[in-house]
Amino acid sequence: MSARFAVLLVLIACEDHKSAPAAACKKFGDNCEVSPGKLGTCVTKDNCSQDCLVCQSQH
After folding, report:
1. Which contiguous run of DSSP H or E holds residue 56?
2. Which residues contact 34 (CB under 8 A, 6 or more apart)?
3. Structural domain that includes position 44
4. What is the average pLDDT across 48-55?
5. Count of domains for the chain
6. 29, 32, 38, 43 alpha-carbon torsion, rounded to 10°
7. Kindly report the CA angle at 43 between 35 and 58, in degrees rounded to 5?
8. Has residue 47 been placed in a domain?
9. Is the Cβ–Cβ distance between 55 and 33 less than 8 Å?
10. 5 in a domain, yes or no?
11. β partners of residue 1
12. Which of 3, 18, 32, 55 has its CA 20 to 30 A from that of 42?
């Protein structure tokens, strides 16, 4: 196998593995993804007046 062919295979294989952005939290206590593969829970921010739900890491 030539080096060029190996590089081409790697580029093709990796091209479609980009993650979509995580959805915003809609309800307190829901599961969410802080970053790709890192689980979190939807919680409310203290002293907040709007958009108070955030995804907080479980670890």
Report:
1. strand 53-57
2. 22, 40, 55, 56, 57
3. 19-59
4. 91
5. 1
6. -40
7. 45
8. yes
9. yes
10. no
11. none
12. 18
The pLDDT tens digits for 14-40 are: 444 445 555 689 999 999 999 888 999
**Percentage, residues of the chain above pLDDT 70:** 61
The rounded distance, in Å, linking the Cα atoms of 43 and 35 is 16
Q: Which residue has the tokens 């993650």?
A: 19
- In angstroms, the CA 38 to CA 5 distance is 34
Say if 53 falls within a structural domain. Answer: yes
Statement: residue 7 has pLDDT above 70: no
Question: Is residue 45 assigned to a domain?
Answer: yes
Of residues 9 and 32, the one with the higher pLDDT is 32
Q: pLDDT class for 58, splitting at 50, 70, 90?
A: confident
